[in-house]
Amino acid sequence: MSPYEESTGHVSCPDCGADVPVDPGYRPWCGKCGWNVVPLRDESRLTAYGRILERVATTSGRRFGATLFAEMKAVGAGPAPRSGLALLGWATAALVNAFGLAVAASGLALFGYGFVSALAFAPALVLLALAWGFRPRLPEKPIWIAPREQFPGLYQLADQVANALGAPPVHAIAFDGDYNASFRKLGWRGRSVVTIGVPLFAVLAPQERVALFGHELGHGVSGDPMRSLFVWSAVNILAELTDVLRPQSIWDPDPRIGGLVTAAWNLLMAGISLPVEWAAFGLFFLLRTSQQRAEYRADLLAAGVAGTEGMVGFLDRLHFGGTFQFTLERVAALGGKGDVVKELRRRIGEVPARELERIRRMERAEGSRLDDSHPATVFRLELLEARPATTAKVVLSEEAAGWLECELAMVPEHVKRRQLEAYMRSLYQ
């Protein structure tokens, strides 16, 4: 239970003494001095190295975020300017992929030579194992794809939005149980897939649903480097190798596992993993500005299709991610007996305006992070509101909106409850 669950009335701000209203179940905060707007981050579990990375992500993210926001206010949804960082990122991705190919070729050559000299087999196997670690990664397939013949209204809307954007039509639409949506390309053919979280889609108004498709399909034309299999694979190669190589700790407190030997081995693996981790962080750094710029452009493109009002409403709904998590926890506390979507709709309707204002102030205070793929939502809203309002090119009729509601109800129950079940399993791990 939140420490403020039963609080009512007003409290005095401990910093400036101002009168602070208290909404039951929500964090009290001071609008005068900003007390309690931003919750304290728990860094107790971070290592010294982790705290350094955290500082870099926040301080550099704020600086780059401010520069990018000013740039986007000036150029809008037009073609993105050439970025030296982005070009260096592409070059780094090329090196990662080329290194994997070179290692694989060397391993195969040594393996072939092994039939002449058996001594070549051992190094060949080592090289081939390393090449396997650098193999290209393909995005995972969605958990459930909506058949076009059973969801005609959904695909018709997606096709209308793609046509208005001048983007290729979507190959498939998938659903999951998250409070999110995404666009990705699957397989070597790069077929586009929009994945929609049922909880998010359920709380959107009709034009906000148009905006969702506008934003996600806009990624197909917004210049986002992470939509390229070439770049996406390089990033995931480095990230996965870091997870495999880096030990969870140097010293194992269990005396049954040869403490000094284990510590020495872990220290060696930590040293090997550091260059890979630095390369991964460097590649993230080089691409993040381009990726966040693509998010802004996708927002502006979506506003041109759904109208500024619809896009602003969609972004405002993204502020309720915390409400979704709280809903999961409450339904899980009841043994999972409940409808997450219905409960979420009810709770969102009860969120006070003051809590939304606190979330916006918190995002503005924290700014953008270097390790975030998206700019802070509050900055995305400010960019839309700073530009002339646009009218919708695609308007969802009342009849079409009704069809979407019917189709949403056809999504299998195991898909809708996926996040809830994953959360409940995590409680017992």
Short précis:
With 429 residues, the chain is α+β, with helices and mostly antiparallel strands.
The rounded Rg comes to 25 Å
Strand order of the largest sheet: 3-4-6-5
Number of domains: 2
How many helices does DSSP assign?
16
Q: What is the global morphology?
A: globular
- Biggest beta sheet summary: 4 strands, mixed
Given as residue ranges, the uncertain stretches (5+ residues, pLDDT < 50) are 1-7
Return the structural class: alpha+beta
**End-to-end Cα distance:** 21 Å
Keywords:
globular; 429 residues; two-stranded antiparallel ribbon; 4-stranded mixed β-sheet; 2 domains
Structure write-up:
This protein is an alpha+beta fold. The chain folds into 2 domains: 1-36, no CATH class; 37-139 and 225-426, no CATH class. The strands form 2 sheets. The protein has a 4-stranded mixed sheet with strand order 3-4-6-5. The longest helix is centred in the middle third of the chain and has 48 residues, at 259-306. It has helices at residues 48-75, 84-113, 121-133, 152-165, 198-202, 206-218, 229-245, 259-306, 308-317, 321-333, 340-350, 353-366, 377-386, 398-409, 413-416, 418-426, and strands at 10-12, 19-21, 145-146, 172-176, 181-186, 191-197. It has 16 helices and 6 strands. Helix 2 (84-113) packs across helix 7 and helix 10 crosses helix 16.
